[in-house]
Amino acid sequence: MTLEDLATHSLALWQVGHGVRQLMDDAFQAAGVRPQVGMQTGSLTVLTHAARANLHMTLLPAFAVARELEDGVLVARDVDCDHFRQAHSHVVTRIGRRMPRAALQLLRHLERWMRAFRA
User: Fold this and answer.
1) Which of 21, 59, 83, 99 is most buried per CB count within 10 Å?
2) Above pLDDT 90, what percent of the chain?
3) How far apart are CA 18 and CA 90, in angstroms?
4) How many whole angstroms separate alpha carbon 72 and alpha carbon 112?
5) Residue 40 forms beta bridges with which residues?
6) 45 CB contacts (<8 Å, ≥6 apart)?
7) C-beta of residue 43 within 8 angstroms of C-beta of residue 49
8) Residue 118: closest CA among 83, 81, 87
9) Could you report the per-residue pLDDT of 34-75, keeping only the tens digit for each?
10) What pairing do the DSSP bridges indicate for beta strands 36-41 and 10-14?
11) For the purposes of burial, counting CB atoms within 10 Å of the CB of 21, is it exposed (0-12), middle (13-18) or buried (19 or more)?
């Protein structure tokens, strides 16, 4: 699916100011395409429900809706877009900060999980 294909559908997108929304807006602008924004929200749950209710299409990474994909209530399609392929994410913490054990375990889990996306 291309951004041009997506632009023909009503989309549920992250609200303006969200980092992922900025990535999307940049990608649409670079493609010279204006998306049909049906709704904007700061909630992953709302985006997911909008797609489940067949009110709008949305752009999310498949891992964010893994359960819905596994249950067959949503379908994921790859989007052919260089902007999306070149996106990066980072885990950030203060140098020298002494973290509680639970936070340290979460950080290590996230680092392993994020590494999996590079494979």
Assistant:
1) 59
2) 39
3) 15
4) 27
5) 13
6) none
7) no
8) 87
9) 999 999 999 999 999 999 999 999 988 777 788 888 899 999
10) parallel
11) middle
Cα distance between residue 5 and residue 62, in whole Å = 19
Any idea which residue has 């009503």 for tokens? Answer: 10
Q: Assess whether pLDDT exceeds 90 at residue 91.
A: no
Tokens of 28: 């649409």
What are the distances in angstroms from CA 106 to CA 46, 71, 72, 96, 111? Answer: 25, 27, 29, 17, 9
3-state SS track over the chain? CCHHHHCCCEEEEECCCCHHHHHHHHHHHHHCCCCEEEEEECCHHHHHHHHHCCCCEECCCHHHHHHHHHHCCCCCCCCCCHHHHCCCCCCCCCCCCCCCHHHHHHHHHHHHHHHHCCC
